[in-house]
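Input for the complex:
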Amino acid sequence: MAPRKPRASSRNPELIRGIGKYSRSKMYHKRGVWAIKAKHGGVFPRHEPKAAPPKPAEKPPKYYPADDVKQPIPNHHKHKPTKLRASITPGTVLILLAGRFMGKRVVFLKQLPSGLLLVTGPFKINGVPLRRVNQAYVIATSTKVDISGVSAEKFDDKYFTKEKKKKNNKGESEFFETEKEETKALPQEKKDDQKGVDIPLIKAIDAVPDLKTYLGARFSLRAGMKPHELVF
Amino acid sequence: MPFKRYVEIGRVALVNYGKEYGRLVVIVDVVDQNRALVDAPDMVRGQMNFKRLSLTDIKIDIPRLPKKKSLIAAMEAADVKNKWENSSWGRKLIVQKRRASLNDFDRFKVMLARIKRGGAIQQELAKLKKQNAS
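Predicted:
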């Protein structure tokens, strides 16, 4: 017969988890194994296994551990990116709370697959480049910037990973010399990416009065400001 | 120094403690030495301790325990809302609420405005000083 679709549900309805309605012999009859056997002369048809490709000869292992080694149970669980707070939407002005740019007000672009937030100053306004930032170290304000002219599609976590340093296995004489610091200049491509994101952003920012000076200023608590009572 | 604001039927008061904090209510009856029956257009009539009320200058003309409709009519006739919002006490509360609701960008703009105003004042002052000196 031509290949048929496999049956969607089991022929044996569940009474309780683990217990079906019909016994083994009743199920044998329901599945029609008797009819298949009758068609093939009293034997259930058996197909020869497909010829497997010859496996290369395995060498016996060099080392057998004395005691049984426990194998770890494999875990294929993949983490979802951190849930984004409802107050953080593309174009929101965020206040950074920690790190080199502590207190800076910055524009949020998008959430990266790792869960970190992609953020830019813009660079010309406050010196914050395209950067990844953790949601926990950020206050979301209710001020939004129009981000429709900006495309942040090409940025992902791989763009921000550090380059792996090449290991220099030199002799002992070189060991005592002071290592020359290789100052890495920012590649022109990254500078162009920054400009590509910033130019439409700055145009949108200039449209709102005082927003440019706002983004250029740092946030700080003054006397009498109670953070739990402030509306951001 | 005699008292000027009396607890009487029709006295408008501000609630200063509890669930109804900040609401303007009218004293509609007195329950006993400590409690009043209190009513407002958008509230279920209920009792409140006098300690929770701050009396205002506004008084409206109502009989004891008016119906809700006549209470609302009397408040409209006496124009309680506008009298309150134009009084210095009422204006202060409005300003406080506005300041508390400012967001971070608004606070920044207020700071710029204050600096600008201070600069303008200093300029005028300098001019006047120069006039005086000459």
